User: Fold this.
Amino acid sequence: MADKGKQIQGIRVYILGEEYRIASEGDPAEVQRVAELVDSKMHELQSRQGSLPRGKVAVLAAMDIAAELLQERQLIDKMLKERQLITERAHESIGQLSRLIDERASLSATQTESSPLERHFRAPVARKQNLPAS
Assistant:
């Protein structure tokens, strides 16, 4: 059902030299780009296959375009799965880091008294003052 605010436009396109009027609510430039893709694909197939009937060229063009679309979708699906895996690994790493920080914070809170060795190295150094010459 069309929106009341949108008007359906008749867009004139040419495919294999034949004129077609396409009714669309979308962007006319986008419709033109789609028609140019179909026209280009049909010309390519016609030049490779010789003199095939227009209907067969159209079907072959549709098959080629559909195959390209499916390949793109598979690539996108693969990329989305890889992204999800990377995100899951990042969340795991953040969780581990958070646990380590919490552990370190709890260790620091429980260590109120320092060890004898720490006290030794932290003790102020007595300066030698006016010692008699030997």
Summary: Strands lie at 9-15, 18-24. The radius of gyration is 37 Å. The first strand starts at residue 9 and ends at 15.
